[in-house]
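task queued by scheduler; priority normal; single chain, no ligands, no partner chains; default sampling; output format set to structure tokens
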Amino acid sequence: MLTELAVIDEDALVPIPDHLSYEEAATLPCAAVTAWNALTGDGDGLRPGQTLLVQGSGGVSLFALQFAKALGARVIATTSSPAKAERLAELGADATIDYRATADWPATVRELTAGQGADRIVDVTGLLDQSLKAVAIAGHIACVGFVSDTAPPIDPRVLFASGATVRAVAVGSRAQFLAMNRAIEDHRLRPVIDRVFAFDETSDAYRYYASGKALGKVVIRL
């Protein structure tokens, strides 16, 4: 909430992991919980040794990468530039794919997984037709968002042939938030923050975030 004071019910609050700053904790309520729900909220959950595909370097994707590594999974990340690929590797990505240089990135995902495909995909672009080509048989796709107002239609035959589960994910529950915070504390994870702006620099913060230059979260400090 972009406000100096707010009155909310105590049940709407959760404890902050003790090793995080207020700026770091401010990144958790939306992107982090969404990523945690995408990986664990279907009753099965990402398991050690499985492969997760994340798209881009936005907040949800970066949190999903960090959580997946903490859970013992392998991570493949798509990105749009060598510089971002290098940063993703520093954060733990086992392989990166430049989707601008590699139009058929789902084929590359299969090459990197010995033809099997990714066990789980966190789809933040709405390109489910592509994700279905990259997912493993009976895998899971968490549909988190869209990059435009339109998205290619899904061929029901491709969906049926994949045997995959496609689940819409919009943030998560308080119980998931608490479970996520325990995992963050256990693994001493720290959110990726690109820049911190002062409260009177709010307009600058929004413009910077809209520019697409950020890798990680943009925080406004009170």
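post-processing summary
- The longest helix spans residues 174-187.
- The mean pLDDT is 92.
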